Amino acid sequence: MMVKYISVGKILNFHGIKGEAKIGCSRTQQDFVMSLETVYLKNGSEYKPLHIESLRTNKNVIIAKFEGIDSINDLLPHKGELLFVDEEVIRESLDEDEFLIDELVGLNVFDNADGKKLGFVIGVSNNGASDLISVKTNSKKVCLIPFVKAIVPVVDLKERKIMINNLEGLLE
């Protein structure tokens, strides 16, 4: 079976001159990233392990020190690269009602009130404060919805659907 890798963050920039990296990730994943010992960098079609020496949080970024990256010059080539983990590692750490953001793409979106299909999910992004799902509506417009329980109370991966409380003006 092929290992599937999921992106959990991104090397935003260097921090200081000793090769430390500023890592950006969604707030919901911060605790998870803080628990990791190894992440992977994608190199062409290969994933190369990067061992974590230390992690600490600083405002809303994580400052990471990787084994073998000891100066700003070692780190610079990796600026902007995504950090991946083995999907199995994420699965083990998820609670039952949690799932991977990637899994939302392609799910149909229904109105929680009347069950009407409103569109489907075409992407997921993060604005720093919360995860947002992009929904392509029946009228082909793309709308961003904050991925929070109050608005998205039901996610059903088996049925491949999510239910949303369609607040006025949320979806065109």
Itemize the secondary structure elements and their pairings.
Blueprint: E1 5-15, E2 20-24, H1 30-34, E3 38-43, E4 46-58, E5 61-66, H2 72-75, E6 82-86, H3 87-93, E7 108-111, E8 117-126, E9 131-137, E10 142-146, E11 154-156, E12 161-164
Parallel strand pairs: 7-12
Antiparallel strand pairs: 1-2, 1-6, 2-5, 3-4, 3-6, 4-5, 7-8, 8-9, 9-10, 11-12
Please supply descriptive tags for the structure shown above:
172 residues; mainly beta; Elongation Factor Tu (Ef-tu), domain 3; SH3 type barrels; 2 domains; six-stranded antiparallel beta barrel; six-stranded mixed sheet; 9% helix
Question: What's the short version?
Answer:
The protein is mainly β and 172 residues long. The chain is built from 3 helices and 12 strands; from the N terminus they run ββαβββαβαββββββ. It has helices at residues 30-34, 72-75, 87-93, and strands spanning 5-15, 20-24, 38-43, 46-58, 61-66, 82-86, 108-111, 117-126, 131-137, 142-146, 154-156, 161-164.
